[in-house]
Amino acid sequence: MGGMTDAARLDLAIKGMSCASCAARIEKGLAALPGVGEARVNFAAERATVIFDPAVVSPDRLIATVRELGYEAPVERLTLAVRGMSCASCVGRVEKALGDTAAKSAMDAAKPRK
User: Fold this and answer.
1) Confidence at residue 24, expressed as pLDDT on a 0 to 100 scale
2) CB neighbours of 2 closer than 8 A, spacing ≥ 6?
3) pLDDT of residue 70
4) What is the CATH topology of the domain spanning 8-68?
5) Boundaries of every domain in the chain
6) pLDDT of 28-50, one tens digit each?
7) Which of 1, 8, 53, 105 has a CA-to-CA distance to 97 between 20 and 30 Å?
């Protein structure tokens, strides 16, 4: 992964591929982005897996690239119930563990209210 210290993995659903060449086109487009260490697209499974450095490229940029190439990357929403948080420090620890901007914004709604 060539110098990536905190690599992250993003799994995406990909819609609109009609052949293996489509998968190769998406792989090439994602792999060309700065901060991407590896991009694999499985045509049969309609999935992409990207290993990337979140300090260099965001998940939103990866999704936008797939869309710019002419394919769909439907975003799946995940809701996590986090129990036992009693203060802002607890929220900070969960945010750090999740590490994703979207997850952090979702956590804002879960912060304990005074």
Assistant:
1) 97
2) 37
3) 97
4) Alpha-Beta Plaits (3.30.70)
5) 8-68, 78-114
6) 999 999 999 999 999 999 999 99
7) 1
Take residue 33 and report the two structure tokens written for it.
Answer: 């982005």
Residue with tokens 């769909």: 72
pTM assigned to the model: 0.67
Q: How many angstroms separate the CA atoms of 66 and 68, rounded?
A: 6
> In the structure encoding, which two tokens stand for residue 26, read together?
């998406």
In three state form, how does the secondary structure of the chain look?
A: CCCCCCCEEEEEECECCCCHHHHHHHHHHHHCCCCEEEEEEECCCCEEEEEECCCCCCHHHHHHHHHHCCCECCCCCCCCCCCCCCCHHHHHHHHHHHCCHHHHHHHHCCCCCC
